[in-house]
Amino acid sequence: METFELNYSLEELKKRTNKEYLSTKKMLDIDAPEYLELAEGDKKALKNLVKAAFFIQKIFMRLDNSKNAEFQAFLDSEILKGNERAELTKILFNAQKGMCAIDRESTKINLAKGITELPGKGLYPEDLTKEVFHKILIKMLKKGKVEEVRKILNQRSIVERKDNELVAVDYVNFFSEEFRVVAEKLEAAAETSTNEDFNEYLRRQAAALRTADPMLDAYADKKWAELQDTPLEFTITRENYADEMTESVIEDEELKALLDEHKIVPVSKDMLGGRVGIVNKKGTEALLKIKEYLPLLAANMPYHEEYEQNISKTEDAKQTMVDVDIVALAGDVGAYRAGITLAENLPNDDKLSLTIGGGRRNVYHRQIRFISDREKLQKRLDAILDKEQHKYYLDEADHWFTIGHENTHSLGPNKGTEALGKYKSIIEENKADMGGLAFLDLLEEKGMYTHEQVLQMLVTFAADNFLKSKPTLSQAHRVRTVMQTKYFIENGAIELNAEGKIYVNIDKMIPTAKKMLAEIVRIQIDGDFQKGEKYVLDNFVWTDEMEAISEKLREVDKTLNGRTESPLAAMLLKS
């Protein structure tokens, strides 16, 4: 067994695992009515789906860091010896789903000495630098090994060394044994689940895990995106925000020219997660109200005549939406690293299903958005928000805004954005946020939201966009909040009052969002790396206002990280 040296002192570990510093989001409990009211066949299916999700988590751990499994085994052995530091380190390891992460104050968390997060995560050889990577690809392309390079720069491969070159292995082949087990669990779930559409999806997904054929994934994704009226939710989430190695290739001019010559579009590699839940019908009905307006929003996107987008301006939107009570979030989707996602809009634009007529699906995580500590929330508002605007702050408004955010992912250019490289995700997340604000006046006019709800969304968004510290460029979701806050301050939509608290100039919020949205979409259309880089860096500026609010936030909120607690899932895993 490999041994490691733990990185944190007992004192620091006790602090970071204290409930004041480590928040907990609790998923469905063993006696949750949502579970107890399920048909017996669905309860049996749920057990197999939870087991499938946690096998996917094992795969994620390897994708994230090749040392994760060894470190986990080391911690377990040390815990058996009574090592208290190992026991507390294991709490953080389980929370962040891995050895390396980042906390809410943008401090990098490395649980073992000498082990740091790599740009290629566990997807590439540990000793491969970006510079060497680029040189190897250039040599391979000049030797005519075009298809080999295309596979290396594909979103579903693990890259290994072979002599002086690199070789790509499709993740279905690389994790054949693990995926076989997941496929068996999905097929077993399909034997008892009461919904035939859901069962068809599970069988298609199982087939895609047994054979390394991207088109099988496309068929599974297409069916998954059509699911609307099902009791259960299961997703293998595939998002590619973490891979900094693949996206770096366009920064080497010689390599970029060769890739263009051979029509190779590099796509960052997917990290895998597993989501299991029970669909909440009441919450889903509320979500679906926006669906009729999506073609109208598509027609109102900036420069909409210059590009194709996933939502047609004239036809019914190919987009399903479900509100889900979460049983388990495993792997990438459950990794609590500074924050955890409230919802997901999948499949992403790089997925084949969108080329064969497939749509997209939004899944919202009910337990993640619930506020557990109202007293802490009030202390935060008292510290940072103008007292007269407290009446407009509503945590539920964050959910309404998230609906707009997720649906905007389906709007705007759906091709060519890979050319933006490491800034692609930042710009896309920025677009989604601005779309969530820019159309609020239109949706109010159409009756989707009341004027009061619009005010609540605008103020809640502005207050929540201030962070405890400046993030790193690798944190796409947080970089975009800094960009937006700086932009809104510059345009007079947000300011600090005489007491140094946030004051929202409500009349300027939507016009500012429309302006920023137009700039972002223009960058996505142009697909120019330098323009994208300039836009991000010009706006990713930590202002005096942000620093003043961050000091107040750190005083009232000690939280550094979080974790999920899944009692129902734990019971089902044991049964």
Question: How does this model look, in words?
Answer:
- This protein is of the alpha+beta class and 575 residues long.
- It has 25 helices and 13 strands.
- The relative contact order is 0.13.
- α1 (10-17) crosses α5 (84-96) and α17 packs across α18 (424-438).
- A hairpin with a 2-residue loop joins β4 (157-162) and β5 (165-170).
- Helices cover 49% and strands 13% of the residues.
- It is globular.
- The mean pLDDT is 96.
- The protein has helices at 10-17, 33-36, 40-64, 68-80, 84-96, 130-142, 146-152, 171-174, 176-192, 196-210, 214-224, 253-261, 281-287, 294-299, 366-369, 374-384, 395-408, 424-438, 440-445, 451-464, 476-490, 506-526, 529-539, 544-556, 567-574; strands at 22-26, 100-102, 108-110, 157-162, 165-170, 232-239, 271-279, 319-331, 343-346, 360-365, 494-496, 502-504, 561-565.
- It has a five-stranded mixed sheet with strand order 6-7-8-10-9.
- The longest helix is centred in the first third of the chain and has 25 residues, at 40-64.
